[in-house]
Amino acid sequence: MEAAKILTQLEKEDFRILSAIELGMKRSKYVKINDIRFYSRYPIEETLYRLKKVHKFDLIIRDSSGHDIAYTLNALAYDLLGLHALVRQNIISQLGPILGKGKESDVYSCIDDNENIYALKIYRMGRRSFKNIKNLRDLIGERSHLSWLYVNRLAAKKEYESLKEVYSLNLNTPKPIGYNRHMIVMEYLRGKELIYYKSIDDPEYIFDHIIDQVRIIFQEAGLVHGDLGEFNIVVDEQGNILIIDWLQSVKSDHPNSRYLLRRDIQNICDYFKNKFHIESNVDDIINSFLVR
Ligand SMILES: Nc1ncnc2c1ncn2[C@@H]1O[C@H](COP(=O)(O)OP(=O)(O)O)[C@@H](O)[C@H]1O
Ligand SMILES: [Mg+2]
What we know:
- There is one protein chain.
- The chain has helices at residues 2-9, 12-24, 33-40, 44-56, 75-88, 133-140, 148-167, 203-221, 257-276, 282-290; strands at residues 31-32, 60-63, 70-73, 94-101, 105-111, 117-123, 176-180, 183-187, 192-193, 223-224, 233-235, 241-243, 250-251.
- Strand 7 (176-180) and strand 8 (183-187) form a beta hairpin.
- The protein is of the alpha+beta class.
- The chain has ten helices and 13 strands.
- It folds into three domains: 2-76, Arc Repressor Mutant, subunit A, CATH 1.10.10.10; 89-187, 2-Layer Sandwich (Phosphorylase Kinase, domain 1), CATH 3.30.200; 192-290, Transferase(Phosphotransferase) domain 1 (Transferase(Phosphotransferase), domain 1), CATH 1.10.510.10.
- Adenosine-5'-diphosphate is lined by residues 99-100, 102-105, 107, 119, 121, 174, 186-189, 193, 232, 244-245, 247.
């Protein structure tokens, strides 16, 4: 990853300038030099010197169309700020190869000082589409200045919090380790997504196991996944089920929760019917969820 290489060449003053731009971006997309100077608390010479350096590394975008020159962070700069913070907090120490690309994220492997392996999920919404912004509307509220930076940060926070809630149920879901900005660090799973299994030893058992987990998460945590399917369920060699990708989850008191719960279960039933000829009844399953 290019970011890892740049990371070693930046000094703390460079990060301070990037953070200053980030601060300014809360108010407007482009931040004027004078404001960057203010937020960084550096003298103007240092500010200009650092701006020139990070610009050379292609981390900021310049706007000289207005009266004052202004800058905004690009996605790489935001990645570096997040990675830098995670390293400083001793959550991770080194980045490894990419594990997977999801619909709206890149997932990398990484390790900490004790050589524990983790997965680092970096949100990249807005890269291809803003489809999921609608789902984040609840979180964003009426804030009009809706930058990609803010949206991805909210997404990471939301998924981190859902992961924590689900993890507390002891169901073998990935343990959340930490988060910063638009990235979350979680336990690494040595399995593969359901969709990549051509055959399964005991599909009936796996099906029941998945439905059981969905039920426990619904009953105990009051949470509905909202995007459940063969892509977001990892199965390991021992037949452990690990449900990932909690961005779109809703609380059971959310107006859409019943609809989403039904859709989640329908997806699982359909998949196991088409691929493994397992018959099930969605209504019976939902009803069994509602009586305790
Ligand atoms: N904790 C993890 N350990 C190992 N691989 C992971 C982990 N989390 C995600 N991945 C890989 O990254 C892919 C994308 O992650 P996911 O959370 O589903 O993101 P998206 O919301 O972009 O679909 C997954 O399909 C999986 O291959
Ligand atoms: Mg996914």
